[in-house]
Amino acid sequence: MRPLELPDTAAAALDRRVRACDRLTMAASESKVRIKDLVRQVMPCTPLTGDLGQADLAVLERYADPRRLLKAGRGRLTALIAKASDNHQGQARAEQWLAAAQAAVELYGEHPAVAFTDLAAEIATEVRLLRAIAAELAAHETERETCYRWTDPAQLARSLPGLAKVGGPAVTAVIGDPDRFPTAAHFKSYLGLAPRASETGNTDRKGQPMSKAGSRLARATLIRAADHARKQDPHLARVYYQQMTERGAEHLKALCVVAARLAERLWTVMHRRMPYVICDTDGNPVTPEQAKHLITEQWTVTEETRRRRRSTKTRAGKAPQQAHTGHDRSHARSADKRGDLPHQRSSDQGPARSSRTLTAHPR
């Protein structure tokens, strides 16, 4: 049992800002997916194949109805797109939208099942909601940066590879006072990146999956950071390489192992109050260019290895199993006959015994 340590004002404020930013980021992502789905309904040949830009949002807010989009014309649409995108896009993007609108009108015509006006109104509402979420997110991000500067003045968390503008404040809010964890292993276990314990009697099973008992936000942040850190730090690149080539791990499992090592290094950096220094596998400090050269030369996983490590399981989560021979033969004794209709008695069996009925004799 250890005493509960509550955060101070700056740490508590950082925690709330980090949570708010994460929630708003997820809401914005869901809103973008919803907008793309609605546009796909009204215009099946939608030009929205990548990220949603400001020019696309401006078009959808005004002309989500393909009939209105065609009436707007090439000139007005080009001017709107150029203004919304700061002249990064123009007539080419307008042509894509006009082609999608023309295809939708030719496909649906005036069929009553397609409510162009109502779908356009719903899309415009989603665009306005997305902009409101983006405005709130920007305000919370500004305050999150201010709180982070008070909590981690030296920006030690951001000195680790993979942890930058978003990851640094997120892990700082979770770790709080690093001295409340006796060792780096305790912090790793707190995040849920340590293997799950499985002890029965005198046995201790190894190779268990990670417990996932800690903060989902911190764990996801470190796993995403691990994918970048393995490309910048030779030590972490070697860990990833060994997991993929020697341990038979697939990409995500190898990243979880790298994330666990990154969590231990995060605790060490915050505990010692010293910034992280990238070194080679012999412990000598190297520049970012030298580190990338070492990783490319020694710790790069080939595409053939990645292809072999990809999971071959079915979507249900289990590998297909081959049926036993006995199950293919209806006359086999080991065949599974549950659910079959009653079978008639074969001719080689003896006659059925008649059942005797017991009757009481009258007295």
UniProtKB/TrEMBL annotation:
Domain Transposase IS116/IS110/IS902 C-terminal as annotated: residue spans: 155-240
Xref: InterPro entries: Transpos_IS110, Transposase_20
Coiled-coil region list: none
Source organism, top-level taxon: Bacteria
Listed Polar residues bias regions: 347-363
GO BP terms, alphabetized: DNA transposition
Pfam families cross-referenced by the UniProt entry: Transposase_20 (PF02371)
Compositionally biased region (Basic and acidic residues): 325-346
Biased composition (Basic residues): 307-316
Region described as Disordered: 196-216, 297-363
A Gene Ontology molecular function term of the record: transposase activity
Protein name: Transposase IS116/IS110/IS902 C-terminal domain-containing protein
Organism: Dactylosporangium matsuzakiense
